[in-house]
Amino acid sequence: MKKLFCSLCIFMSLQLCLAQSLEKMHWFNEPEQWNIENKSLSMFVTPQSDYWRISHYGFTVDDAPFYYATYGGEFEVKVKVSGDYKTRFDQAGIMLRIDHENYIKCGIEFVDGKFNLSTVVTHKTSDWSVITLEKEIPFIWIKAVRRLDAVEIFYSFDDKEYTMMRNAWLQDNTPVKVGMYAASPDGEGFIAKFEHFNVKHLPDLRRMEWLKNNAE
User: For all residues of the chain together, what is the average pLDDT?
Assistant: First the structure.
């Protein structure tokens, strides 16, 4: 029985890998120019587009490009992000989105001539946290891990050593749209590139605890 269970897990993992294809994902606010080549997504980011709700600035916008697939349960998502950022607030990264009032976007953002590790958490209204980098970087790895009702967000310069930049609440037991986004709120757009996008299923912590406590 144990061997059968292990074989089933391996089969399901292989099926997940096969099914996880950039070509099978969906656009929300599709940009005019985009391309998928060598398992990478490139786009020309729609000018004067963004995601934000109400707080501080007093406006709500929900019109930037977002390329996603829908996942339930717990998972880890990561991607390598680069771009020719030009204008204040040019940004690119990962978004986890339940709906227009509940989402997390995280990645790199160009502000006042500097690169910032940026996270916006929105539940009815948006907040914004940044970590300023002192030098220009050619790319960044962004990773988000959804566990129960929390999302931990990490960054890396080499896909080996990751540093946490934010822990945020996100409703659990709810399907989430997961994918790559970019925005150019103040500018005329720029080219953003996403490589090695990957979503990995994680076993549900509550179920694993139940199985452990109720083992035969």
Answer: 92
Going by their DSSP bridges, the two strands 66-71 and 176-183 should be labelled as: antiparallel
Q: pTM score, two decimals?
A: 0.89
**Span 11-61, pLDDT tens digits:** 444 444 434 689 999 999 999 999 999 999 999 999 999 999 999 999 999
Whether residue 101 contacts residue 53, with contact meaning beta carbons closer than 8 Å, is answered with yes
Q: How many H-runs (helices) and E-runs (strands) does the chain carry? A: 2, 16
Q: Which pair of structure tokens corresponds to residue 70?
A: 């829908």
Which DSSP symbol is given to 174? S
Do 55 and 77 meet the contact criterion of CB atoms below 8 Å apart? no
Q: Taken in order 13, 15, 16, 22, is the CA torsion positive or negative? A: positive
* Overall size of the chain counted in residues: 216
- The one-character DSSP state at 45 is P
List the CATH code of the domain at 2-213: 2.60.120.200
